[in-house]
Write a structure and sequence with these properties.
Elements (H helix, E strand, L loop, with lengths): L7 H21 L8 H13 L4 E4 L2 E7 L2 E11 L26 H17 L5 E9 L8 H6 L10 E8 L7 E3 L2 E4 L1 E10 L3 E2 L9 H19 L6 E10 L5 E2 L2 E10 L2 H21 L3 E8 L4 E3 L1 H15 L4 E3 L10 H7 L2 E7 L22 H23 L1
Parallel strand pairs: 3-4, 3-5, 5-16, 6-15
Antiparallel strand pairs: 1-2, 2-4, 6-16, 7-14, 8-12, 8-13, 9-11, 10-12
Helix pairs in contact: 1-3, 1-9, 3-9, 5-6, 7-9
């Protein structure tokens, strides 16, 4: 089926004022991860007005818009949570909740998904299959994607494809950024414990210096990325805290350190954990002490499917022009828990320009001065709608 996707911009215009108003009200009332009760209530009230059935899973909301003919199912995800920041943006609708701010654009993501839902609710006779709306909590915290997956949100109906976006202030409105394969890295929290034996600083032979062991471990850690993995791969190991010792004249018995590891490949993460654990244990042993590494896996690497990226690029070229499609050369080692959805279903996550445009200065994401250019909102709705329609058409052709 050939569609004229260029018509979408005009078709969404009549309800964009309502969508922008929703975004501004959400910006005024930010809620942190797993506390998005008011946000979820306002989303469900909106879906009710539009005749879209929904279900709640904690603060998560899942809506479903069914077309007039059977077919596949495409899911769209928007995160809803805010950050623990005091707002300094200067907008006319600042946060009214002290110490909380939508500094990562999740209010925009939610508004875009609602706008997309509105188009599909008004045009059920123009598509086959169904569109699943995933309003996700807690992306900035422990992660809300995995609990939603465990609750079965990718089933009944079975989700065939999934798409998501993130606003990006270094891009102008009307630009998108794509990457095949790895777009974001994985995160792994590292917890080191190094044990020696206490002794008097004047008699070093009486003890085993845990601080000395820590120094050698830190130095050795810096060689792991440069000498144990290919320079063509992306990884980083950083130590953020170190604590040990009781007094200046006493040899430290124990040192603890905390750090993070980021990789662009989930298999590489597992391999590096093994290398780090061996390094810590053997370095400590070589100095007469003991070393232990405990890890806590965070978000997985976000790996886009090539075909889904190609689909998003085609729609982007149609709606924005080929000159406004940017291709990200290297993955970011920042994390994004949309990665867990992509481990279960093929899809694409991409970046939507929300900066000031014209090369103006901008505050980055997670800054208390972050400002989202609302010109990106109708473009985001048009893109998500066009991508979903195209994916549903392709699924219909496959049946």
């Amino acid at each position: 089926m050939e569609r004229d996707l260029t018509l979408l911009k005009g078709e969404i215009a009549p309800f964009m004022e309502e969508i922008i108003a929703f975004r501004r009200e959400m910006h005024r009332r930010p809620e942190l991860g797993r506390e998005e009760f008011e946000t979820a209530r306002r989303i469900t009230e909106t879906l009710d007005r539009w005749g879209i059935p929904w279900a709640r899973y904690g603060t998560a909301v899942v809506g479903l818009v069914e077309g007039s003919r059977p077919g596949g199912c495409v899911a769209l995800r928007a995160d809803m949570d805010a950050l623990p920041l005091e707002e300094e943006s200067g907008v006319d609708f600042p946060s009214e909740n002290p110490g909380k701010m939508h500094a990562c654009g999740h209010d925009g993501h939610t508004a875009i998904l609602l706008g997309t839902a509105r188009w599909f609710s008004l045009n059920r006779d123009r598509f086959s299959g169904s569109v699943k709306l995933l309003f996700q909590p807690d992306e900035e915290g422990e992660g809300g994607a995995e609990p939603m997956i465990e609750a079965g949100v990718l089933e009944n109906p079975f989700v065939d494809r999934i798409f998501g976006l993130h606003v990006m202030p270094y891009l102008s409105p009307g630009q998108i950024e794509l990457r095949k394969g790895a777009l974001n890295g994985s995160s792994t929290a590292l917890f080191f414990t190094l044990k020696g034996r206490s002794g008097h600083g004047a008699y070093p032979e009486s003890g085993i210096d845990a601080i000395l062991i820590a120094g050698h471990v830190i130095t050795a850690l810096q060689s792991v990325v440069s000498r144990r993995i290919s320079p063509l791969d992306s990884a980083v190991v950083s130590i953020g805290t170190i604590a040990g010792g009781r007094a200046g004249n006493i040899i430290a018995e124990e040192v603890t350190m905390r750090g993070t590891m980021r990789t662009a490949d989930n298999g590489q993460r597992d391999r590096l954990v093994g290398i780090l654990r061996e390094l810590v244990e053997n370095t400590a042993r070589a100095h007469g002490g003991e070393g232990r590494l405990e890890v806590k896996y965070g978000y997985a690497a976000l790996i886009n499917e090539d075909a889904a990226v190609d689909l998003a690029a085609r729609v982007g070229e149609t709606l924005l022009g080929k000159e406004n499609i940017r291709w990200k050369e290297k993955p970011s080692l920042g994390v994004e828990d949309f990665s867990f959805f992509l481990q279960k279903r093929p899809g694409c996550f991409y970046h939507l320009g929300c900066g000031p445009g014209g090369g103006g200065d901008f505050a980055p994401l997670h800054s208390p001065r972050f400002v989202m250019n609302e010109d990106c909102l109708p473009l985001g709705v048009a893109l998500q709608t066009g991508i979903t329609l195209t994916a549903l058409d392709e699924l219909a052709e496959e049946q």
